[in-house]
């Protein structure tokens, strides 16, 4: 989890979040640092994010914005092919959205009363641990 200023967009922090991924293996070996895919909404559809994911060998499951589709079509054959979208995988993104909705039930997290980023991050991690323990 990365805490940023309220005015920052999420897409700017995608590389930092991916760099922090460490999934331990059940047996011996180094932890996994690359997910199979990134499921995201249209806010993450920028070419920068897509190129960064492709360079790391991560499948991007991100729909295109309507204005990007229109711009590509205006260019004709020079616009290239549209990026592939695995619709079956994208349907599972609702789990992520429901988790955010559940986290926003914590009033202090939804309104960000904490002044210090470290305190806010601790509250988010506590909420995640409590939610995970209920599952």
Put the structure in a nutshell.
With 135 residues, the protein is mostly helical. It contains 7 helices and 2 strands; from the N terminus they run H-E-H-E-H-H-H-H-H.
SSE pattern: HEHEHHHHH
Tertiary shape = globular
Overall pLDDT level: 86
Q: What is the number of strand segments?
A: 2
Side by side, the strands of the main sheet go 1-2
Q: Count the helices. How many? A: 7
- Largest sheet, strands/sense/barrel: 2 strands, parallel
Radius of gyration: 18 Å
Helix content range: 40-55%
Short key terms for the protein model shown above:
135 residues; mainly alpha; 7 helices; globular
Please describe what this structure looks like.
This protein has 135 residues and is mainly α. The protein has a domain of 77 residues. The protein has 7 helices and 2 strands; from the N terminus they run αβαβααααα. It has a two-stranded parallel sheet. The radius of gyration is 18 Å and the shape is globular. The two termini are 20 Å apart. The mean pLDDT is 86.
Helix-strand layout with pairing:
Blueprint (H helix, E strand, L loop, with lengths): L13 H6 L17 E3 L7 H9 L3 E3 L4 H9 L12 H4 L3 H10 L3 H5 L5 H18 L1
Parallel strand pairs: 1-2
């Amino acid at each position: 989890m990365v805490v940023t200023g309220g005015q920052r967009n999420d897409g700017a922090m995608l590389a930092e979040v991916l760099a922090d991924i460490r999934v331990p293996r059940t047996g011996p070996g180094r932890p996994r640092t690359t997910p199979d895919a990134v499921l995201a909404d249209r806010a993450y559809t920028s070419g920068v994010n897509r190129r960064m994911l492709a360079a790391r060998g991560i499948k991007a499951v991100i729909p295109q914005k309507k204005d990007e589709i229109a711009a590509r079509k205006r260019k004709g054959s020079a616009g290239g092919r549209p990026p592939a979208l695995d619709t079956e995988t994208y349907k599972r993104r609702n789990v992520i959205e429901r988790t955010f909705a559940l986290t926003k039930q914590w009033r202090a997290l939804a309104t960000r009363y904490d002044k210090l980023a470290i305190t806010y991050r601790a509250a988010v991690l506590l909420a995640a641990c409590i939610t995970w323990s209920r599952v």
